[in-house]
Each structure stands twice: as structure tokens, then as C-alpha cells.
Batch of 3 targets.
Target 1
Amino acid sequence: MGGQSIYQNELDNLEQSKEFLKRNDYSQMELQLEFKKLVENYEELVDQVKIITKISDRLQKKLNKTNDALESSNNQLAELNNQLNETIDQLTEAKIGRRASTIVLFIAIGLFVISEVLLEPIIDDMFKDNAFVGLALKLVVAILIKPGEDFANKYMLKQARKKQMEEQKEKRADKKVNKKVKKKRKIL
């Protein structure tokens, strides 16, 4: 076929019919033959259109099924992605909670050592008659451990989420750049 149109046969038939109409003198027989040829060509075109329509309908059904399957897969992937993000968040919170507990434990040990070494002798000298003051000071330190741990935990979570958001922004920016590069490659 080369450079010919897939409709070359139909175009040739159309051109022949136009040439026939340009003539002024034709017999009844020529008109009947030309009309018969047009009817046959038209019938052939209608049959071709029916076949093309059936093929198109089948392809559309396949395309619809494929799109439905893709949509279902995308929904499943989105759900799995949400579950993964929730799990990552829980792991991050657990990891940060352990870090916060460790930090607060070291601070509590430090405060305990400071109170035993530095404050206890001063308190004992000032309140010789009342041993409960030193005990109350240690109780205050012990009571402050949990709020200190909560504060450290919240602060560290906030920092981790901030870092996570920045990483997500970078990933989105990288994806946009990659899409642009792919589009340029397709164009070239």
C-alpha cells in the first residue's frame, strides 16, 4: 500500500461517481449500472462499519474491564499505602518514645545524683530536725519524670513529623521532575 490511504478504494469509487455526474449525456442503462455500483459500494461500506463497530465494542469492553481492574488495584494500593504509613507512624512513635524514655531516665538519674551529692547535705544541714524535706524533694523529682517524658516525646515526634513532611515534599518534587524528563524523552 505504501503511501496510499486505507480508504483508497472508497476514494476511487467516489471519484468515479463524481466524474460520471459531470457528464451531461448518459443513458438509462448507464444510470442503472452506476446506481447499482453505488449501492454495492454502499452495502460493502455498511458491512465494514458493522464489523468495525463490533470490534470497537469488544475493545471498549476490554478497556472498561482493564480500567476497572486498574481502579481496583489503585484502591488496594492506596489502602495498603495508608496502612504502611500508619505502621511507619506507629514505629516512629515507638522509637521516639523509647528515646524520650531513655533521655528522661538519664536526666532523672542525673537529678538523683545531684540531689544526693549536692542538695542532700545542704537540706540535711538546714532541716536537721525534719528528714521528710529531702524525701519530699526526691518525690517532686520522681513526679516530674512522667511529664518530662511526655514533653520530650511530643517534642521529638514533632521534629520527626516535620522531617517526614520535608522528605515527602522532596519526593513529590523529584517525581514532578522525573515526569517532566519522561515527557521530554517521549517528545524527542
Note: The chain has a mean pLDDT of 83.
Target 2
Amino acid sequence: MDDNLVSKLAPYREHPGIKAALLISRDGFLVASSADDDVNVEAVAAQVAGIIDISARLADELNQEKTGYITIELTDLNAVLAPFGGELLLTLIGTPEAIGLQYTLRSVRP
């Protein structure tokens, strides 16, 4: 694992409630990670590949060029997938207090 990339993940892990910070290639290979022992980082990376694929197909269906951020709200954890450089995806997994997902519906103003 690239120590330079692992060091880039350290600031994310300093936040209370962040259980894992991973850098994943778009084809689902784990490039770098910093995670609690109970997070199977290889398995998470493999699952993220499927999410990326589905998101890309949805973007294509909606005539969009690419997918930006992907957020996932689970029972006790939340995850966010975000572009990180050219070919990598940053995946953060944490408690709802650490990763709060907020949706805003903007109204049209005259």
C-alpha cells in the first residue's frame, strides 16, 4: 500500500466517528486505507465498484457526463464516495454524527 496515499487519509480518521477512509480505484481495487479492525476494507472496495457502476449507468441514462458524490445512509453508519484526483474515489464510512447527510429541496423563486 502506498504510504503517501495512506498519510493523505489520516486527517479524515482524526474526526470522531469515522471508522474508515479508503482510496479505491474505479474498478474496485483497494489502493490505500485507514480503518478500524472491524471494517473489511477489501470487501468494501469490491462493493463500491458495483455502486460506481450503477451510478455511472444512471448518469448515462439521464444524459449526464459523470457521477459526483454518492451518499449512502445505512442503519448505524453512513458512507460518502467522492472523486479523489483523476482515477481514485475517496470512501468515508462513519457514524451518522460523523457523516451527516442533509438533503435540501430548493424551491423555485420567481
Note: Residues 3-94 form a domain with the Beta-Lactamase fold (CATH 3.30.450.30).
Target 3
Amino acid sequence: MSKRPTPSRLTASAHLTGDASTPATTVEEIAATAAQHAVLASTPEPTPAPVEEIIEAPAVAPVVAASSPAIPARTAPRLDVKAAAGLVAAANRGEIPMGQLTAALSDLTYTANADTYPDTWLGNLWQGVNYQRRFVPAIGAGAPVTSLKVTGWRWNTKPAVAAYDGDKEAVASNAATTEAVEVPVQRLAGAHDIDRAFFDLGSSDYVAGYWAALAESYAKLSDEYCAGLLIDEAQNAGTSGTAMGTIVKAAMAVMNEGTPTFIGIGTSVFESMAATNTQDALAFLGGSLSFDGTGSLGNVSLFVSSILDDYTVIAGVRQAATFHELAPALRVQVANVANGGIDAGLFGYCATVVHNPNALATCVLD
């Protein structure tokens, strides 16, 4: 017996029309051809089997024909699942030549059956890095807020000493003065009336995202409030023509009061630092500044902030001010039974107290 070539296997995406020489127009014709090939493949060579034996030989044709209705000539036949599977299996076994199967299966598209596939649930989508406060951690941490105002005092003119000759001469005595400091506590809050179904049915992703969004908003707004008071109280050190010159000038303005511990720069100052000569100066001072907006100049904390005016630099000593707040901010939720909701909100209280304005200075890049 000659060795029959192994046919390529088919998948259920094949369609049925006919071979290149004799088009098949009905399922019955294809089934009959399948039967002929099935018997020929199993008959010993070289003695050909009689035609009568081929007709009577068992094949898959009766199964296919029985389950497939007659199809008018030259129309695309439509097979049910059983008949289609039978034809594909027969072709894979070599009982139907590959040329006779091209496409008679009904299309099952994703679009037509999209409802059978669940959506890919991603939960709360990432929307950028959470805001990190810059000014609040740059100054001292004050006592927690326990009332609606913070009070204290500071020197206007500090007591000073002078040279003394002795011999019971008069000792120097300057006119030292003080002033009272009273800072109202800033209230920060946000609230919403939320459908209680989010809480009742365990929508933890939404509820957690809600509280996280309020907390981030509080962090940014409290930092803006702190920066505003520091800038208002700081001394004006003038202007400079270069980014590095602006930074150095602001830092030098506070050196009489103490060693600068932080320098905040506006976005345009940061951009100007891309100049080669400025980068050389930064390296000379042992400084660094990364794209996360933080860095250092020696032992001085350096950070970029969009809260500052674009061309402004502020330098300061940590002890120059303190930040007071009720921490953490209060999360409150109350049932709104009549409307089927939950009244939820976040409430914060904070105050920035400047102890020594001369230990803060601003400078502008011109």
C-alpha cells in the first residue's frame, strides 16, 4: 500500500464551497465525495475497489447528510454545529480533501456576543502621585490645635549687650520690646451626601477612594495656607539675574538669624537651572535636584513648588515658624435616613505661627 500524505489539520473556522476544478454546491455532494475518499484511503493498492463496493461502503456521509438540509445550488450552505464538527473531523482524518473545505460555517463574532464576556475591572484608576506637603515639614511642628486661635508673643527688639568699661560706669541697656501674636485657626473642610448603597453593599473601593481624595485635598490646601503665611511674613531680599544667584541671595538674607535649613523655588527658577553654567554652580556647592522636585544644597533642603510664584525663591530657618494642626483631620459620616444617604466629610484645623520674620526671605529671578 502506498503511503498517503498526512493532510494539514483544520480548525472550526474553515468554510465549505468546493475544490478548484469541480465546485460543490450542496452538502450532499461534499458528503458523497467524503465517502469516496474514505473508502479509497482504506482499500489496498494497487487493486481498485469496484464502484458498487464504494457506494455500499460505510462512511461519514450518511451522518452528515442526515443532519444537513438540502441547500439550493450556488448558495452558501449553513451547517449546524454537529454537521460542521463532523466535516472538520473528516477533513482532519483525510477523508475529505483539503481543497473542498474553505468556509461554510456561520460567523460567531465577538461584537455579536460581547455580553458573554465580563469587562476587565480596574477599580480606582491611578491619577498621578499623591500630593506631598513641602512647606509644612520645612518648619517646626507646633502644639496640636485645641481651640480656634493660637496666641503667643515675640520680640520686636531683642535685649542686647554692649561694651562695658567697668569702674561702676553705667551698663548699656537698650529698649527691648515685644508684641503679642494671635493667629486664627484656619478651618478646612469638604463633605458630600453619598448614596448609602456604596456603604451598605460593601463598595470598599469607592469609599476608600473618597476618603483618600479628601485627605489629599486637605494636604495640598493646608500646604498652600502655610506657604502663604511664610511668604507674607518673610523679608524681601530683592532680585537677581540668575537662578543660582537668586537662591544664594535669599539664603544669605537669613544667615544673620541662623543657618538656612530649607529653600523653596518656583517652577521657572527650576527651569532656568537647566543652563550649563547654573548646573556647574550647583555641583560646586555640593547640590542636587531631581525630577521629583526635591534635592539639597549642602545640608539645606531644596524643593520645587508650584505654590510659589514661578520666579520666586524663599529661604528660611526651620525655627522661624511652627505649624499647628489637629492631626489627623477628622473624618465624619452621619446617616441621612430620609434621603437614603450618608453625609460624609473631612474637617481639618491648622495654624501657621511665624516666630521670627527675619529668618525668612524671598528673592525674585528677574
Note: The chain has a mean pLDDT of 81.
